[in-house]
Specification:
- The structure is a single chain.
- This protein is of the alpha/beta class.
- 40% of the residues lie in helices and 25% in strands.
- The strands form 2 sheets. Strands 5-4-3-6-7-8 form a 6-stranded mixed beta sheet, with helices on both faces.
- α3 links the parallel β3 and β4.
- The radius of gyration is 20 Å and the shape is globular.
- It starts with a strand and ends in a 9-residue tail after the last helix.
Length: 249
């Protein structure tokens, strides 16, 4: 998509890779899964682990569809596959409020703390997300002592993929590869950064010339509205105009 978008990294871009549109087309996701499965199968053969149980994992939400279709195509090759997904860590609103009181007493200027205050005032959520991913629903028991392939759709900073890898490692899984749908990191994401043996992406994009820091974005300076339908435009607006729509609170 062409326009003015806020990315998860907080940078702004004139291009947005709309993964959500992809997920509306089962045939297209099936094909992506087939391509990811090809890469994983080849790597399993190289490591002589193709006859062992392999776990395919990804960060929710989009990664859920990727694990299912990739796992399906690996099963069609006769492999023993389980597909799981990681979820964001969360803490209760009560714990978050206690932390906010302490932060206020200490006159903390941490941006994350301010974002949480805004969300609580706006009534956006009752659970506050922390840094990192974890495996719930008994998936941790399936991962322990198993070989794991981590999938991700779009990698800009690689944070979600890296945190998913960390979550797998923390519970005793062994990540042998990370496969991405599209890499728009401009070389910032690598196997070393993700802390995996191997990293591959189906598509590599170069959009650096039209990606900007939030503070120096020329489209913001020109008054071009940020897109709030896709990407992280709503989060950007909440930071810039935190109390819009809260007059009745």
């Amino acid at each position: 998509l062409r326009g003015h978008f806020a990315l998860k990294s907080t940078r702004h871009s004139r291009w947005y890779v709309n993964k959500d549109e992809l997920y509306t087309d089962p045939s297209a996701v099936c094909e992506v899964g087939r391509e990811m499965a090809e890469i994983i199968y080849k790597r399993c053969r190289e490591l002589w682990i193709h006859e062992e149980e392999i776990i395919v994992a990804a960060p929710a939400i989009g990664g859920v569809a990727l694990t299912q279709w990739t796992g399906y195509h690996l099963q069609q090759r006769g492999m023993n596959i389980k597909a799981v997904f990681a979820e964001k860590k969360e803490k209760s609103v009560f714990k978050a409020m206690r932390e906010l009181i302490v932060a206020w007493q200490n006159r903390s200027s941490d941006q994350t703390t301010w974002d949480v205050i805004v969300k609580l005032i706006r009534g956006d959520e009752l659970l506050v997300r922390e840094e990192g991913f974890c495996f719930k629903r008994g998936y941790n028991l399936k991962i322990k002592d198993r070989w794991v392939a981590v999938l991700e759709d779009i990698l800009t900073t690689g944070t979600s993929a890296k945190e998913t890898v960390a979550a797998v490692t923390e519970i005793g899984g062994r990540v042998f590869i990370c496969v991405g749908l599209a890499d728009r990191s401009e070389g910032k994401v690598s196997a070393e950064v993700l802390k995996v043996q191997e990293y591959q992406a189906l598509v590599t994009l170069s959009l650096a010339d039209e990606t900007f820091d939030e503070a120096t974005c020329p489209d913001c300076a020109a008054g071009v509205p940020i897109n709030t339908d896709v990407g992280h435009g709503k989060a950007f607006q909440a930071r810039k105009f935190p109390f819009v729509g809260t007059a009745g609170l």
